[in-house]
Amino acid sequence: MHQPVGYVIKNGRAEMTSFSALIANPHLWVQFPHTVFSGISTGAFFVLGISAYHMIKKNKEDWVKSSLKLSLIIAIISTILVAGFGDAQGKYLVKNLPMKMAAAEALWNSKDPAPLGIVALIDEKNKKNLFEIGIPNLLSFMSFSKFTGKVEGINDIQAQYVQKYGPGNYIPPVTLSFYTFRLMVGSGMVMLLISFVGLYYYKKRTIYGKIKLLKLMVLSIALPYIANSTGWILTEVSRTPWIVFGLLKLDSAVSPTVSAGYVLTSLIVFFLLYLVLIVIDIKLMLKFVKITPINNNYIKLNKNKAEEESLWI
Amino acid sequence: MDLGTIWFILIATLFIGFFFLEGFDFGVGTLLVVLGKKDVERRIIINTIGPFWDGNEVWLITAGGAIFAAFPIWYATMFSGFYLALLVILVALILRGVAFEFRSKYEGSKWRQNWDYIIFGSSSLLSVLWGVTFANLIKGVPIDNSMNYVGTFSNLISIYTLVAGVTTLLVFMYHGAIFLSLKADGVIEKRAFKIAKPLGRCAIISWTILIILTYFQTNLFESKFAIVAIICAFILIDLSRHLMTIRKSKLALLFNGLSIAFTVTALFLGLFPRVMVSSINPQYSLTISNASSSANTLLLMTKVAVIFVPIVIAYQIWSYWIFRKRVTKKDLEY
Predict the structure, then answer these.
(1) Predicted-complex ipTM score
(2) Cystine design at B210: which of A97, B141, B167, B226 (Cβ 3.0–4.6 Å)?
(3) Which pLDDT does position B50 carry in this prediction?
(4) Which pairs from A82-85 meet CB under 8 Å and 24+ separation?
(5) Phi and psi at residue A70, in whole multiples of 5°?
(6) Each residue of B26-70: pLDDT tens digit?
């Protein structure tokens, strides 16, 4: 949808001409590993958080240490890979889909060298930032691996797109793109920091005493979820007004027979359903976190209660 | 045979597989609170379908995916037109899956009872809704000349479609009862045999009414093959009833499953070469030629399907083989 390939427009629709072109789509190979490794790092932080919880509770069983170690290592490797592929994706986007990155950076006018914004008060109506703090030259560096280089701004890209695709507004929601990008990258950086500090104290064998760090690890279970969700929002939102880039805009992709009321109904239903399920899920998880694989109190309790409860997952 | 026809047959096959297999686990879900009184009994009932129910849903997902890829216009018209109905189906499927997984994770009897009622409610509702949905496919829905569904939710509900819903529910309950008589032991096995008799009778009566209504409501009977399939379906469900009275569950399950398969086959034979019937004008119906993907896409999909469909079928057969034993109190997992 970001970079359609291997198709031909026939009978008013896109028809596939080459499956190998779909598989070889370069966009796929910067996005797919980024997503896969963020999945792995989500799992690693989950295990890390729960191992840290047992350390806080002074659980001296062997598995606590080894699962903490394993999850720390996997957390570090996968988070570095996520960041690496994210960086590759960023560089790729600057070249191929510059509007996405310009919006994610709230860079209205082309700059050489371009600074990396940290915070910005964005005025989308007048297409400028009222206030911004940035690190000089860093965006150029992130885009081209050198400290100079012109990064195209939103207004210039908008002008190019008008020439290419006809009149229209091609600017995605900038504020949302800018801040979801920062939340994603920021969470990733904290994740890296926590796992490196964790590994350091693990190697020094003093991690049992670092209660604050362990507590931070428990809380850090939330970080990959924040990073994943904001990353997803970023990549979808910054594609607007396109649903398929260059081919199909959002307003022409809307189903003609599904009313806004229907869509709203389904949104509310899913929101409520998942809200209930999340609450139940968290409650169950909190219960299961306390059970350890060795001193399985839960199973013991069960066996006393009823003899038929012989097996339990 | 052109690729469109091949994919029509494949999608029909996937739905036949879905109703044959998921039919009994929906039925078992409905019978959960009817036949199971104590928690252990209910656990035995759930464990009979425990290793299978999610595998059975694969058939539905594959069918939906195949429609999406092979007949994008059918997919677009149906999923947009049946929006609210499919929303309810999806919510029920989610709740049902969650209920199976969650109920054993906590001891409380109130907790377990609530999930039991969700399994009962969602299984029953899903059976009815699938009947309603498929009846609408053959009966026809308002589709205009630009292939859009122009009706509302209420267009999908009529006496005919509701009879189809009730029939599906009863046939599935009967199917589930046979399955339980085969897979459960002790008191559940006894109760399953007992309830299978009246359920079989009700199912066959309701099914016959549905077929009579179908004669007046649709042009299914214009297809000679569909008529043959209908007759086969009737003979098979009746045979399965007799087999149940002499307690031959295995054959009864097979025959009733085949009866379901023939009924679904008749529906698709009656549809062919249409995929959705327009009630406004027969000219507006979606067919395998005007709703399909490009030949290129279909060819690629055919290659992929030739490789993967046998693999899926093989591992499903394998899982049924592994879990072929009766479920007793000793091997409860859910």
Answers:
(1) 0.85
(2) B167
(3) 85
(4) A82/A34, A82/A37, A82/A38, A82/A41, A82/A188, A83/A188, A83/A192, A85/A30, A85/A33, A85/A34, A85/A37
(5) -60, -45
(6) 999 999 999 998 888 898 899 889 888 888 888 999 999 999 999
Is residue B115 within 8 A of residue B36, CB to CB? The reply is no
Considering the domain architecture, whether residues A54 and A151 belong to the same structural domain is answered as yes
Residues of B in contact with A308 (CB under 8 A): 40, 329-330, 332
Q: Are residues A144 and A291 in the same domain?
A: no
Same domain, A174 and A219: yes
Q: Residue A308 — pLDDT band, cuts 50, 70, 90?
A: very low
User: Based on the domain organization, do A263 and A234 belong to the same domain?
Assistant: no
For B255-316, give the DSSP string.
Answer: HHHHHHHHHHHHHHHHHTTEEE-BSS-GGG-EETTTS---HHHHHHHHHHHHHHHHHHHHHH
Cβ–Cβ below 8 Å for A313 and B150: no
CA distance B98 to B118: 10
Closest residue in chain B to residue A273, using alpha carbons only: B91
Asked if A226 and A267 sit in the same domain, the reply is no
**Predicted confidence (pLDDT) per residue in A19-69, tens digit:** 888 889 999 999 999 999 999 999 999 999 999 999 988 887 888 889 999
Contacts of B186 in chain A (CB under 8 A): none
State yes or no: pLDDT of A298 exceeds 80: no
A300 domain-assigned? yes
Same domain, A290 and A308: yes
- Contact: B300, A262; criterion CB under 8 Å: no
* Cβ–Cβ contact B94 with A under 8 A: yes
**Is residue B156 a contact partner of residue B141, using CB atoms and an 8 Å limit?**
yes
- What the block records as the tokens of B161 is 């479609």
| pTM reported for the whole predicted model | 0.86
pLDDT beneath 50, residues of chain B: none
Indicate if A238 and A263 belong to the same structural domain: no
Instruction: Provide the domain count of chain A.
Output: 2
Q: Which of A222, A254, A286 is the last residue of a domain?
A: A254
Domain boundary among A228, A254, A280: A254
Q: Calculate how close chain B gets to A280, using CA atoms only, in Å.
A: 9
